[in-house]
Amino acid sequence: MNKWLELIVGVALLVLVILLAWTSSAYSWTLFGKDLNFWHAAWTFLQGGIFWFAIAISVLLILLGINDLRE
């Protein structure tokens, strides 16, 4: 695939996803009584990712500290 085409498709997809998330939060989208707010779902997913990344880094640092104590 052409590098410029890949870049344009990537930017277009990013803009489309951001617009989809914004419109789902600005307007009330419901399906079978469930609220479809993609912006909130993405924010919750990002917060969970940051939480698990911090836990992984802390476990890694603890294991490195234990390894240094053994020597």
Describe this entry's structure for a reader.
With 71 residues, the chain is mainly α. It has two helices and two strands. A two-stranded antiparallel ribbon has the order 1-2. Helix 1 (3-26) crosses helix 2 (38-70). The longest helix is centred in the last third of the chain and has 33 residues, at 38-70. The chain starts with a helix and ends with a helix.
Question: In short, what is this structure?
Answer:
This protein is mainly alpha-helical. The protein contains two helices and two strands; from the N terminus they run αββα. The protein has a two-stranded antiparallel sheet with strand order 1-2.
Would you spell out the secondary-structure blueprint of this structure?
Layout: H1 3-26, E1 30-31, E2 34-35, H2 38-70
Antiparallel strand pairs: 1-2
What is the H-and-E element order?
Answer: HEEH
Q: Please state the average pLDDT score.
A: 85
Q: Percentage of helical residues? A: over 70%
Uncertain residue segments: none
Rg, alpha carbons: 20 Å
Number of helical elements:
2
Gap from first CA to last CA:
52 Å
Overall number of strands: 2
Helix and strand content put the structural class at: mainly alpha
Give, in spatial order, the strands making up the sheet with the most strands. Answer: 1-2
Largest sheet: 2 strands, antiparallel
| Mass-distribution shape | flat
Proportion of strand residues: 5-15%
